[in-house]
Write a structure and sequence with these properties.
The longest helix is centred in the C-terminal third of the chain and has 44 residues. A 5-stranded parallel beta sheet has the order 2-1-3-4-5, with helices on both faces. It is 55% helix and 18% strand. Helix 2 runs parallel beside helix 3. The chain has 5 helices and 5 strands; from the N terminus they run E-H-E-H-E-H-E-H-E-H.
């Protein structure tokens, strides 16, 4: 089961996104109108993916995703916006580490595909990290074994 957070200050957008994702049986979706409430939740719950609107009161989507990147670096981050400019796009990539930049209005199929790609990418990153940890542990065991063998 994937845990997905969606943050947008427009309730109609949140409802639309939930409708788009309702057939994804393995997605547990939480929605937030207030990005500060969403950040508070992210401090107590791990999310696999986050979709955030770019322009929200209190904290904009770029800063929100940047904070989430610090809290949960492995979470897939997707920024949505109705206004496209190159500066926002660059900040989404460089500051927030966004996996995708989605333009409103979105294409439902492409949005689902983007989320699935992001979740798959996240799974691979986690698996690679686990394998690297296992290799490092085995290397430590080999070094320890060799050191004991030399001492006997």
């Amino acid at each position: 089961m994937y845990k997905i957070m969606i943050v947008d200050d427009e309730e109609n957008i949140l409802k639309s996104l939930v409708r788009v994702f309702h057939k994804q049986n393995n997605w547990d979706i939480e929605t937030y109108i207030n990005p500060l409430d969403a950040l508070k939740r992210a401090r107590t719950c791990i999310f696999d993916a986050i979709i955030a609107d770019c322009h929200m009161p209190g904290i904009d989507g770029l800063e929100f995703l940047h904070e989430l990147k610090l809290l949960q670096p492995e979470a897939v981050r997707i920024l949505m916006t109705g206004v496209v400019d190159i500066e926002t796009l660059m900040q989404a990539i460089n500051k927030a580490g966004a996996f995708r930049f989605i333009i409103k209005p979105w294409n439902d199929g492409l949005l689902i595909d983007s989320m699935n790609e992001g979740l798959h990418y996240r799974d691979i990153l986690i698996e690679n990290r686990m394998l690297a940890d296992r290799v490092r542990e085995q290397q430590r065991e080999i070094i320890s074994f060799n050191n004991r063998a030399r001492g006997s």
